[in-house]
Amino acid sequence: MIWCILLTLVAVPTESANILFATSFASISHQSVFQPIWKELSLRGHNVTVIGSNPLHDKTLTNLTEVDMSYMYNQKKETSKKWLVGQKPGFLQVFMKDVFLTYFFSIMHDNYFQQPGVQNIINGDNEFDVVIAEWLFPTLGAFAARFKCPLIGITSLGAPIPSLDTVGNPSHPIYSPDHNLPIGRELSYRDRVLSTLYAIYVRVHYQLVVLPREDKTVKKYFGTDMPYLGDIERNISLLLLNRNPVIHKIMPVYPAVIELGNVRPIKVYKPLNSELKDFLDNSKNGVVYLSFGTNLLSSELPEQYIDIILQTFSKLPYNFVWKWEKDVLPGKPKNVFIQKWIPQTALLAHPNVKLFITQGGLQSLEETITHHVPIIGIPSHSDQTFNVDTAVKYGFGICIDLIDLTVEILEDAIHEIMRNDSYKQNVIKTEKLMNDFPTNGLEKAVWWIEYVIRHKGAQHLRSPAMDIPWYQYLLLDVFAIVFPFVFVMLYLKYKIMNIVICTLKKRFSKNVKTKKE
């Protein structure tokens, strides 16, 4: 009774709001960040409508309505085979990949808006107090314009340059390069060239190709009276990013950009099946866990790399758990356990798991740090190179490019971590840094969402950079006046000095001549 009274006294009264939470990318690693947020909003009494590929299907959440978009996994599966090949893209492939992915998203959004559940929302008589949209693209922001309510963008990781531009947040190509680039913390000359060229290219391509194409899709399904999508995205109130300053590179952020970090309840475990649990319990020499996440399937790696991994595992005295998406792994050694789907957090929490071979996704990195398991990172796309480089920087990981993978290199890396306790101690130190914050990401996300609801937007946090022309932002008009002025002044100074010097020379020559006479 006393606890109930205390909770009542400290609780902040919040009116029930109607919230639309729209996500577009079918990936459990993305959706697992968003799920706790819409669940918590529902538990707080808000009426939440979710459009997403991973609905909770929790009947106890009576004020949660979910539009199931899980069909998108099939659509994404065919696409991922074309660009997720397991190794980092080269210099030119970075640009080609962006062209391909933005086109894929355009097709996906067109299909997205066709779905009956989405059509019912677009054409219905719903009223929403805020729209929360996954902000890899601005297309879902059209819901906010349709319902004339504030817009909040959210990502499950960092944000690409065009997304940061929507709130006017600075993104310098050297100290805050685009998170999709296959570069680490310390930029080589090649990396700096790539980052600079990409920062220019991605903005030009976005403004001239992506935005007009997405705007056509919006008007196709929402009506031709909709504002231009480029204007819709500029009215965003907040941008919520799942970034942690320990894992991610430090960058300046405006008040409208909120860095969350640690949104998911990582220590909530799904049970291990009895066969896997027995395998782990009986692995007295330690277990190495191998998974390349949900977007790149191990079973779709080039055969040469699968053979290298199998040869390496067969030579070592440890046991291995491999997330393998098929029923059979040809040539599987006796010390390897395969399973199509593994509750990763529960496995990493097992005391016999000593090493995680991972692609370096953000969610995997958060989980392995939380459970004090060092990594061998083999990055392939998006932010994975940077994440693995973070592990190397903090001393709890080793990075191997897939193209460089050999039996000798992989064997040496596994032995190095399994026999050297410093990797374990370094990941423990990193975990203390990562989690030492006054509040967790979930509480922060919910507070800021309710802040926008309470104030019917957050335009007072808007960057002044959003209200000036690009040529003024780049100071081109200032340089246009200052440079000619400085040039004229320097030229006049040169001419005056030249006249003075010539005059002095003549007088000096005349005086010398007079003395001689």
Automatic annotation (TrEMBL):
Principal location class: membrane
InterPro entries with a match to the protein in the record: UDP-glycosyltransferase (IPR050271), UDP_glucos_trans (IPR002213), UDP_glycos_trans_CS (IPR035595)
Alphabetical keyword list: Glycosyltransferase, Membrane, Signal, Transferase, Transmembrane, Transmembrane helix
Signal sequence bounds: 1-16
Membrane topology: Single-pass membrane protein
Localization annotation: Membrane
Domain of life: Eukaryota
Record field: transmembrane: 470-492
GO molecular function: glucuronosyltransferase activity
UniProt similarity note: Belongs to the UDP-glycosyltransferase family.
Name of the featured protein: UDP-glucuronosyltransferase
Organism of provenance: Cryptolaemus montrouzieri
